[in-house]
Amino acid sequence: MMHLKNMLLSAALAALLVTAGCSAASTGTPSGAGGSSELTLRVGTTASADGFNAMTENGSFGKLNYTGLCAAPFVTTDEKGEVQPYMMTSWEISDDKNTLTATFATDKGVTWHDGEPVTMDDVLFTFRYQIQKKSGYCTGLTAVEKIDDTTAKLTFEDGKAFNALNSMANFVKLSPKHVWEKVDGDYKEYQGEDASIGCGPFRMTGYDPEAQVITYQSVGEYFMGTPAFDKVTVKTYDSHDALVMALRTGEIDAMYDYSNSLSATMAPSVTGVENLNPGMSDNPGNYQLVFGFNQKPTDDLAFRKAVRSALDYELLRTSIGGEDGQIPGTGIVAPPNKGFDPSLPKLSQDQEAAKAILEEGGYLDKDGDGFRELPDGSEMNVLITPQYNKTRQPLYLRIAEILKANLEEVGIRTTLDEESVRNADHATQVRKEGTYQLYIGYTSPGVAMYDTAFMYIIQNDSNPWGTCTLPAFVAAYEAKQQGRSYEEYSAAMKDLQAIADQEVIGLALCWDKAYFPYRTDRFEGFTNIPGWGVINNKTWFSVRPKNA
Amino acid sequence: MLGKQPIAFKVGLFILLIILLVGVFAPILAPCDPYQMGTPYLRPSAQHLLGTNDLGQDIFSELLYGTRISLIIGLVSALAVTVAGVCIGMLSGYLGGWWDRALMEVTAVAQAIPSLPVTIVLAAFLSPSLWNIIIAICITAWSGTARIIRSRVLQLKELPFVKIEQTMGASHGYIMARHILPNLFDIVFVRGVLAVGNAMLTEASLSFLGLGVIGQKSWGGILHYAFFRSGIINGYWWWYLPPILCISLSVLGFLLLSYGGQQQLGRRN
Amino acid sequence: MAKRTLLGRLGESVLIVFCIVTLNFFLIRFMPGDPVLHIIGEEEYYNLEVHAPQVIEEIRGEYGLNQSLGRQYLTYLGKTARLDFGNSYRTKAPVLETVLFRMKWTLFLAIPATVIAAFLGGALGLWAGWKPGGRFDLAATPCFLLISTVPTNCLAILFLICFAFQLGWFPISGITSGGLTGFAKGLDILHHMALPLAVLVLYKTSSNYMLMKSTVSLIRQEDYVSTAISKGLSQGKVLSRHVLKNALCPYLTSICMQFGGMLAGSMMTEIVFSWKGMGTLIYDAVNAKDFPMLQTCFLLISICVVAFNLIADLLCLAVDPRVREGMNHVG
Which CATH architecture has domain C97-288? Predict the structure, then answer.
């Protein structure tokens, strides 16, 4: 019996030891501050922390570079989504919209993080690389030419200068020639220490793979302003749940997750918490339903109108956008976008009207099985394809369930494209070949700002996404792409929204809010940019410690 | 007959009977259509005993209907696993020689393959039909049963009446069907019942990862949406707790059944 | 004699590993989808498809994806033999480096869990099995039975909700908070691992308990035990001399199997607690169709299983000489 007791005792002791170790740790100081007197802004994200190559946009390092943390962009956007100077300090667009003459901050004493000065050579190198890799951010750019040590001339085709200026905002960053010219092969695969070098206000100083934290150190005085804090840490969490808990316990100060705002279902968990601002803003992006113009019956206006009248927008609003979600208008694009037309009517459900439209269009239930047939009498079974996205999948499936239920209520038989739910490649193929009928997708805030949801609807040379080739729509879209000023752009956007209203080329499913919560107890001076949140290109120069 | 069974067996049987009845009569028992959408995120009330989910569907009715898919997956997978395990184990044990070597090699490989990761890989890449999920669950689960059956058959083979039949020239098939199989009944029962429980646990894990059946209610599926549509961080216990309890209760039923069977087996030997 | 069986076992293990290497290759190759999409990323892939489809073919060639299956298989075998597992499709980093890093953290969680559970489950099972129907048996058995009915991920979620979300005693996820060094970091890691460790220990303990209990209660009914007791031997002596000796072999085999399965065994727990181990690595690799990563993970897991099966045989041989005859009989 002694033996048994000893064994039990030692087992209990082992268990005790572990718990003791844990409770001792729990009384330790809140981590993240590092114990030094340096002031740190602690950011949380869900982008994975793998790779620190400034030529890629991968992981939390790449996504944070959209805010100009470590790499400096040529131009940025402001709260209204309009282009603002950064490394490109001023510009002029020629009348034919084919030449952009710009000055650059190569005389402001900016240096790369390894101490080398930033020069015109770097500017030329960056644009030449963009041309060579046929970057989608600089479409139409054909040549770059140095005029003097601060000025260069960019040449475009098809009048794309203004378009490219807007597309490259936040996304195209200046690259150090001296680092990359010695790299053989694909820049994106380069893993060297100096791959992270940029000329932004913060320099990457380390990565802790266990904690998944990247640390950045301020470079001090900077031509855009001097940061009021010394360090930035970016910690990766596996889920928004964990990130919110970290915010609530004060482990981090703010959330950044490019285009992945907290889902509206989580809003209650960040509302009414002490020292926590839910960081709500109007989302310029939205979830949308796109019709397949290559397929019957979605190529038929009557059918599309019937779908528009059949859907339960109240349920869609709460499922997608929660309490703060809004029922969208018929023009698709959300209120924060440039050229938004508030005069268009709001979507509303009227199933009797939907049935009447279907009857009139010849969609009758001839065989009496409770579902309508196509006007030619053949069977109708409409495929609902959700976009493939691992994190949004639960919501996409929920939206699909709502659409299915609503359409069946007006006698339209539907099937969920299950293959696309599991298999990303099948989903891609369906979209690429344009063989979908009803496609549920998402326009991210970044795309919404300039390209807008219409990019997913149009089919033309530079856009493989959509299937709509209605001449009036294509013309209006081209006009938007070639606009030279925000006035021209907005006018074209108004036309596009009017066409969306009349031709029902797609439907916004909800105009939701974005939530990028942040703490208010340590820092102040945040600017909440719609769809981006408080970690943006202004953060590094305007945020300062509270009571300092 | 039932009176002689251990208490665990009876309790298990009772639990399973209730669950089976709930599954069969779900449409009659359910207060609402679980696919009918309404106001989302309602708290429990007289009208909705367990509140509503993110689409306004009645969670209580979802649970009742969920019994069906969860049970079907559990039972069919267990049947497949047991049949495969018994066939391989019996052939290997009875025929011996090269058959034994080859089949045991296959079994050893199946045992060394990481079962949950392989199941996840299959479930992730096959289209999400009920049958594919069952295949994914079964693919490596049969190896344990095969080994146990084999060692039991090795014992049975040495019994005098089998030896006599063999010397009398009875065919292998005849002996296996007539003498070996009936004597395996107890062990097959215990393993089979255990396999139902295991399959249900695996299904719960798959559904939780979003790799379960799409468009039909299952317990794991309810839990998946509760987790990924913020039921947990918002503290909606009426959403995430009931499916966990349902899974546990039915697995408990099967465990008790096999536990009782095992006791019976131990007593008889 | 024993030497020959051992060699046979070793050969068998190598054969099994080879079969698994082959299966790995085909299982993963037959999955639908174009891996190039995951190698270069979605946006880039679509971009290239419109502007420069030939680049996609070049990349396919670079990764050897355009060769015949047989050739790809031979290349794969050659590389595996040289321990060259290639680079991850997703992160471009060397696979082996990543897998070893993740393996370290899985082992950090799994080894203590297995060891603690081995002692705890064994001791408690011994206690309950020695006095079946006793007070302890009646109290503990239902508890452990209940634990084994809850799916792992569910128990993990319940722990997460209760001790991390509601009570706030433990961190939600991850391995460490970062920014710490030395002793403080060690404590922080312990603090993070407490919940996942507790979940794993509970599961393993309950299965160990059940095994030990049933083995001991069977042995207790044997004649030699009753004889020993009637001869007046003390309980402790009977336990250590007769019961433990006979119960140890099946128990050790089971513990070895747990060690063998530990690389993949804590997968669901790792996913729920975002523990950056093999489990989460495999799950991410599945989502990203990262073939080299999956293959390497599966290979290491299988080798681990096979190796510990071998060790189990050796241990039994050492503990219980009678097994030697049994091995000859079977093998």
Answer: Orthogonal Bundle (1.10)
Nearest to B215 by CA among B87, B81, B55, B9: B55
Q: C14 in contact with B at a CB cutoff of 8 Å?
A: no
CATH code at B104?
Answer: 1.10.3720.10
Q: Is-contact C315 C252, C-beta < 8 A?
A: yes
How close, in Å, is residue B219 to chain C by CA atoms?
12
User: Has residue B251 got a pLDDT over 70?
Assistant: yes
Interface residue A416 vs chain B (CB under 8 A): yes
Taking alpha carbons only, the member of A275, A274, A270, A273 closest to residue A324 is A270
> Helix, strand, or coil here: A101?
strand
The minimal CB distance from A422 to the residues B128, B225, B233 is found for: B128
Structural domain for B254, as ranges? 2-29+57-268
ipTM exceeding 0.90, yes/no: no
Average pLDDT estimate for B175-181: 81
Provide the mean pLDDT of chain C.
Answer: 82
Chains interfacing with C (3 or more CB pairs < 8 Å): A, B
User: What is the residue extent of each domain of chain C?
Assistant: 32-84, 97-288
pLDDT band for position C322 (cuts 50, 70, 90): low
Name the maximum alpha-carbon separation found in chain B.
Answer: 75
Domains of chain A: 37-71+200-282+513-548 (3.40.190.10), 72-180 (3.90.76.10), 286-511 (3.10.105.10)
Q: Which two tokens stand for residue A460?
A: 């033309």
A389 lies within 8 A of chain B by CB: no
pLDDT (0 to 100) of residue C6? 75
pLDDT in tens, C136-179: 888 888 899 889 888 888 899 889 888 887 888 888 788 887 77
By the 8 A CB rule, do A125 and A175 touch? yes
Q: Which chains touch B (3 or more CB pairs under 8 A)?
A: A, C
Closest-CA distance of chain B to residue C183, Å:
32
What global pTM score does this model have? 0.83
List, as ranges, residues 136-165 from C with C-beta within 8 Å of A. 164-165
